[in-house]
């Protein structure tokens, strides 16, 4: 499995930056969500879409942990749905 920066990740909604605070409380920049393609042929994302994408990326560590817990539950023969 690929290594990643462990969460929690924070989101700065003003510029859609995703970051993590280190032990000293300093901002460790991870990425920024922006329009991307400048070819003129792509449909530009709306501000709402960009913010939703940034929120989804920022939630990735928590989503990964939830998936790991779900996998444990589903692999447990004692659990029935």
Described by the principal axes of the CA atoms, the overall outline is flat
Which parts are unreliable, with pLDDT below 50 for 5 consecutive residues or more? none
The number of distinct β-strands equals: 3
Strand content: 15-25%
Helix residue percentage: 25-40%
Distance between the termini: 29 Å
Major sheet summary line = 3 strands, antiparallel
Can you walk me through this structure?
The protein has 81 residues and is an alpha+beta fold. The protein is built from 2 helices and 3 strands, in the order E-E-E-H-H. A 3-stranded antiparallel beta sheet has the order 1-2-3, covered by helices on one side. Strand 1 (10-12) and strand 2 (17-21) form a beta hairpin. The protein is flat and about 55 Å long. The two termini are 29 Å apart. The mean pLDDT is 83.
Write the layout of secondary structure elements.
Blueprint: E1 10-12, E2 17-21, E3 27-32, H1 47-58, H2 60-75
Antiparallel strand pairs: 1-2, 2-3
Can I get a quick summary?
The protein is an alpha+beta fold. Helix content is 35%, strand content 17%.
List the defining traits of the structure above.
single chain; 81 residues; 17% strand; flat; 3-stranded antiparallel sheet; 2 helices; alpha+beta
């Amino acid at each position: 499995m690929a290594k990643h920066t462990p969460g929690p990740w924070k989101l700065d909604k003003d510029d859609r930056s995703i970051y993590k605070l280190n032990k000293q409380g300093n901002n460790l920049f991870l990425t920024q969500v922006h329009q991307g393609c400048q070819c003129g042929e792509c449909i530009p994302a709306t501000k709402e879409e960009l913010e939703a994408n940034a929120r989804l990326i920022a939630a990735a560590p928590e989503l990964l942990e939830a998936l790991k817990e779900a996998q444990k539950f589903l692999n447990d023969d004692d659990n029935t749905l």
